[in-house]
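Our collaborator T.R. sent over the components below with a one-line note: 'Predict the complex.' Nothing else. No constraints on interfaces, no templates requested, no preferences about which chain binds where. So this is a plain run: every listed entity goes in together, and whatever single assembly comes back becomes the starting point for the next discussion.
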Amino acid sequence: MGNENDHWLKKLMDNPWLLLVLGIVVPTLSYTVWGLVEVMSLPPATLP
Amino acid sequence: MSAIPGFLKGNFRSNESRTCDTTGLPVCNTASLFIQLHAVFAVVFLLVGAVAAILLALTRWPAVHLLPADWFYRVLTLHGVNMLLFWIIFLEVAIVYFASTSLLNSRLFSKGLAWAGFLLMVIGAVLVDYIILIGGADVLFTSYYPLPGHPFFYLGLILFAVGALLAMINFLLTLHIAKRDKTYEGSVPLVVFGATAAVIIAVLTIATGAAILIPTLLWAAGIVDIIDAGIYRVVWWGMGHVSQQINVTAMVSVWYFMFSLTTGAKPLNHAVCRGAFVLYILFINLASAHHLLVDPGVSTAWSIWNTSYAMYLAVLASMIHGFTVPAALEIAMRKKGYRQGVFGWLTNAPWGNPGFSSIFMSLVIFGFIGGITGVTIGTEQINIIVHNTLKLPAHFHGTVVGGTTLAFTGLAYYVVPLIFRREYYMKGLAKIQPYIFVVGILIVILGMQFAGSTGVPRRHWDVSFAGSPIPIPKMESGWLALVGVGGVIAFTGLLIFILLTVATVFFGRSNKGKPMESWGDVKDVSASAGAWTKEDEHKTPGTWALVSILLVSFVVYYFSNWKALADVWWVR
Amino acid sequence: MSFLIPEKDWFKAPDKGERNWIAIGIVWCLIMSVMMPYWHVAGKQNSRGESYKVKPEDFSARVQKFVETNSVGKLGNIPIVQPNPGGHAYLMGGGYIWYPILKLKQGQKYTLHISSTDYQHGFSVQPINMNFQILPGYDHVLEITPTSTGEFNIVCNEFCGARHHVMTGKIIVE
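Returned assembly:
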């Protein structure tokens, strides 16, 4: 389908599988993994 | 099929397809069966959610205060789950099955997969509703850990999600075989691209959902306990908010589709529209952070980056759609000869066609109410004066109800005559149905918005606080009466839609073998409107007027919320 | 048509109208992006306090100690507790009450620790409408400075069980 000379953005838009991978990896790393790392690395309270 | 530009030879097996008598598009009979099954069940769950909605509205209306407390929370759980998951996802499966077959000249990848997905979704949804109604899961839609729900509540959700995942896989594999079998040449249509974006977001929803629902099921069943409240919230919202971005994306695709179908609108620039969908795929799902802005545990950097969808790139995408969708409509109408003044194209639009009026009102409500409020209250600090007040449901009734549900009901006015091949009963009533629904839902949103601004909590049975251990004064509740009144009107509008649709699907007059009866077309009067030049293809003064009003409203609402925040006690 | 296969040369630059709108959109998005960091520097209301992990029984014991050392009276059988200005105060959500009642001084800064002993709660101070999420297992620390005087009511705005709607509390500011 695609042409070698196509713009990279057009190639991306014509590739649902690559979009699927990006659509899962980007939010999972940015939101879920980063958020979990922060929540799970909280220190214990000292309750002064 | 050769009449459709870009289509080559379809990959249908013998007797597996027909040609639509109205549009000339191919219809895969297997896909058609599953579009019908999913659409029918979508409407059934819409009815469950709607009955729950009116009970809730009549309870939050202080003068009526209908349900007892335990049933209020039970029905609230039922309303959330049926509306936010079952109604919308059943209809979305119907949409993506249609988009990947009729619009790509392809058969559906697998009938077995479609059956398996459908049955799992039905079994899961029925199980969840049953458990809720017997009082086994008074935990609301969010089922926040450690509120205990019956294990079968989570099991039902998991079965539903697995079923939906099978449907999404069926869609993606249908894309694959259409491309492999060369049923079309070039790139997929914009509507299919939008549907693909929705499916990608759905896959993310389900993957994240598995990551939280499976441990929660194991905990509820007393097997292991590996989660805590903070972890639950991060991961659950990675599913809960993302599931609603499926709706946004599917809804925008339906806008494009329906404006083309009802007025012949063409996208101005495919690269721009598709680029906006790519921004959704990449960034819209960071906004799950909206729910954790006043939580303990997550940092400022995480909050600002994620709540802003990576510096508002998904907002930019919505602003792009908010321009390109009406602009396409404006140009199509002007080309047909409606060139008077700034808004002649709009006043002459087919307002009596429920498939048009629903979509246009969905666009306006989503943009002006759902969008503006959502971005504003999802601002890190502004969330302090909004979190868990009624301003929150005011926002998402502007996105999910005034936006998605309205758009999907508008779509149904074409799905029923084209796929079920039956003509609607009482077309006159159908034509005013969207307006009744919109008036009602706008009143509901208004009531929630202003009640929420005075601090009235969401998810709350009684703001008189009678019987509290520390007596406090009753909360100002005048605005809550609007929620009740609007609820009655919106419910009436929705019930008209459901009754007409169900009656038509089962008993309506067949239109097999001939085009569907028009809901009201736009006459081409260009012959008397003068020459149409190449420059006219880019002139959209009406759209510019609309988006200018939108931007000014956005700026005013956004900064007035900062102003309100500045009056609060100092806190850090 | 948006539902038909696009023409082969669909991938092209936007025209002037679309370019202008996208440019306007980017400017607005940048303004909104800057507002949040700006308010952390210049604003007085920020939602990002410190927080720590805590066992509910440890937090509950600390609240009891706080009540014993700083109690100044009772409303019904609920203690009214006055923390030292500039000092630490403790508030516990659970069993459908915000415990104890706090007595604060206007214009003084307090380090307020809030946690839950059972389910998730919404700490919602009315009528000023300030809202935070409270989780069991987490010590949510807020530095607050009351800027107005009077009796302020705390409601719970996160569903926490069958009697969620009776969960209240009070902050008295002099």
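Summary for T.R.: The helical segments of chain A are 8-13, 16-40.
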